[in-house]
Amino acid sequence: MNKLLLADGINKVKSGEYKLDNAPKKIEICGEVIIHYENKNNENIEIEVKDNNKLIIYNLYDITNDVKILINLNNNSKIIYNLLLINDGKNKVNLNLNMNGNKSEALIKVHIINKNSDSNINFICDGKIEENTIDNVLTEDLKGLIISDDSIKISPNMEVLTNEVIANHEVAIGSFKSEDLFYFQSRGLNLEEAQNLLIKGFVNSILSEELRNDLKMEVRAIE
Predict the structure, then answer these.
(1) Could you state, in order of their start, the residue ranges of all structural domains in the chain?
(2) Coil, helix or strand for 95?
């Protein structure tokens, strides 16, 4: 895997697998690209996937202030965006996806969790499919895990200006399932251990192995 050091301005990324060492302001995808990125500085991101290109991105965000993410897809382009938001404080995250061409595909997978009971996050996912475009596919799969008295708000918005499209969204916000807690406790774990195991599973399921190994922060259940 290559390490990618980005400069200010537009950065063109060619085919390969990369780990970002700093926050990109704007990147253009020119090939088949895989990116592993831990955003520690709450930087905004702008991504453009050029014609006939593909991006798979695993993105871990430490959220401590408002953040904007902008994605533009062109003709016959594809993005699979795996995004984990670990929020600290009262913040808003806007993810805007624009499908500007034909025969493009977007899968937006987001997991959201707060670090403590005083935190709340407002996540807005805006997907827009332009008029006079055909054969585009947009899927939003958005999940939030409540660990205490914290708050998660998710708004899955789709602006579809054409009939030649497949567009779906799924949103789920919930806490620990009693049957899952019972299962782990029946095998010797106490309540806190069971809760933290479920948190770990929720967090790790959205990350690549590279980012799981780098994850330093610890989110613990609060009784």
Answers:
(1) 2-176
(2) strand
